[in-house]
């Protein structure tokens, strides 16, 4: 299966592409990705047989993650097909390949990862080998997503802990209230002023001596 570069770009631009969409929960995808992606792989093989350009998308209903299988002439997602003309000679003919694409902010800085699985003809004729390649690729991406989620959880926990004020130790110290020993300051009785009472001055008694009259 092959296409002229310009013809491929025009077909994508005009959406002359057969689409298949499916949804699944993240837990189911993580538990058995092969089963979840099997309908996508089957659809792509049907389109290869019909010589039709195609894209199959799985969207996780409870996470911002999408996984796609799509056809292209270069290692670029279909949505960037306009860029192909800057890289390849649009007059040339190139084989169509099947690419696996994952889109989510957690996968890398760009939020997208795309890798070639096999040429379309090989994907159809050597299905077991192609499916194994998809299996290995998906497990690697799931591992990255789990690691990213764990790191994010740890970061959030550290941030939350940093915001909380340091908790005081729950065990109260048995504080035996020391009754402050009152300083018994023996009040000094005010020093009595020794008042030496002056003995009252004795009145000088003048005894009149009366001389008897003769």
TrEMBL record:
Species the sequence originates in: Levilactobacillus namurensis
Region (Disordered): 156-214
Compositional bias per record (Low complexity), positions renumbered to this chain: 202-214
Biased composition (Basic residues): 165-201
Highest taxon above the source species: Bacteria
The protein, known as: Uncharacterized protein
């Amino acid at each position: 299966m092959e296409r002229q570069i310009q013809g491929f770009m025009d077909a994508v631009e005009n959406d002359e592409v057969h689409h298949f969409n499916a949804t699944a929960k993240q837990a189911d995808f993580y538990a058995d990705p092969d089963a979840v992606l099997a309908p996508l792989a089957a659809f792509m093989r049907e389109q290869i047989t019909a010589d039709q350009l195609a894209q199959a998308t799985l969207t996780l209903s409870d996470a911002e993650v999408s996984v796609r299988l799509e056809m292209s002439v270069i290692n670029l997602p279909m949505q960037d097909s306009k860029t192909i003309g800057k890289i390849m000679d649009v007059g040339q003919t190139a084989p169509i390949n099947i690419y696996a694409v994952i889109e989510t902010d957690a996968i890398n800085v760009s939020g997208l990862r795309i890798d070639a699985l096999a040429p379309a003809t090989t994907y159809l004729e050597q299905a077991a080998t192609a499916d194994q390649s998809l299996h290995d690729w998906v497990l690697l991406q799931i591992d990255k997503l789990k690691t990213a989620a764990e790191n994010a959880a740890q970061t959030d926990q550290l941030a939350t802990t940093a915001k909380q004020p340091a908790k005081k130790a729950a065990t109260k110290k048995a504080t035996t209230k020391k009754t402050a020993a009152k300083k018994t300051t023996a009040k000094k009785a005010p020093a009595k002023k020794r008042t030496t009472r002056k003995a009252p001055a004795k009145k000088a008694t003048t005894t009149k001596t009366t001389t008897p009259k003769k």
